[in-house]
Amino acid sequence: MLQQERYYLDITLNDKEFARREAFGKIMKIIHGISSLNKESKVAVGFPSMQSSSKQEFTTIGSSIRLVGSRFDLMVIYKNPYIESMIETFGIEIKKIHAVPEDESVEVLYYRDRYTENYKKDPRGQTQTKFFPFVSMQSGNSTKLFMLYIGLKEAGASTYSNSSVSYSTYGLAKGGSSFPLF
Predict the structure, then answer these.
(1) Average pLDDT for residues 51-59, to the nearest whole number?
(2) Global pTM exceeds 0.85
(3) I need a surface site. Which of 115, 129, 148, 171 has the fewest CB within 10 A?
(4) Percent of the chain residues past pLDDT 90, beyond the cut
């Protein structure tokens, strides 16, 4: 089967970790709003410089969020007025859309880490041995804030194969939907 060419769009923010968590959470909320009608997204979300650590001060979501999809789908986000307003509000920098260098990338899965979300709510007071990156999100149904923890693992046998691949409404892995890391 012929593989559809993938494109990427990097959005960077060189600011404090809490500002990046908030800004990247707002970008994911925009993707969530666009894709909620279809219950899935054709745009994948990843964090190329994300790091987990056993020390909280070394855990970071990173300074960039990368969106991967068709040129058309990325242009819809690129031209979104809420994204454009974030240039002033947060000082984000939106890079140009480029083709994914398929021969230089490794397929990975960025996923919503519900285990960590539930672990954080665990009242038993267990000692945490690893800190995970997250973005700050605001529920669309209320003003309640929550942390959406992001996990990363190798894709293994699950790789991008055609245009029917879809992602969760947040742009994270759904089933075997992988993300090119380069």
Answers:
(1) 78
(2) no
(3) 129
(4) 29
Classified as helix, coil or strand, 10 is strand
Q: Which CATH number do you get for residue 14?
A: 3.30.70.2540
Q: Is residue 81 part of a domain?
A: yes
**Structure tokens belonging to residue 9:** 């769009």
Q: Tell me the residue range of the domain where 33 lies.
A: 7-174
| Residue 182: inside a domain | no
For 181, phi and psi rounded to 5 degrees?
A: -105, 125
Distance set, CA 47 to CA 9, 21, 140, 162 (Å): 12, 11, 23, 22
Task: Assess if residue 2 is contained within a domain.
Answer: no
Q: What is the pLDDT of residues 152-170, one digit of tens each?
A: 888 875 455 444 567 888 8
- Using H for helix, E for strand and C for coil, what is the string for 88-127? HHHCCEECCCEECCHHHCEEEEEEECHHHHHHHCCCCCCC
- The DSSP code sequence of 148-175 is EEEEEEE-TT----STT--B-TTS---T
Nearest to 93 by CA among 81, 74, 78: 78
Cα–Cα distance for residue pair 87/169, rounded to 1 Å: 23
Contact of 71 with 7, CB cutoff 8 Å: yes
Of 62, 55, 78, which Cα lies nearest the Cα of 7?
78
Contacts of 137 (CB under 8 A, 6+ apart): 25, 28, 29, 145, 146, 147, 148
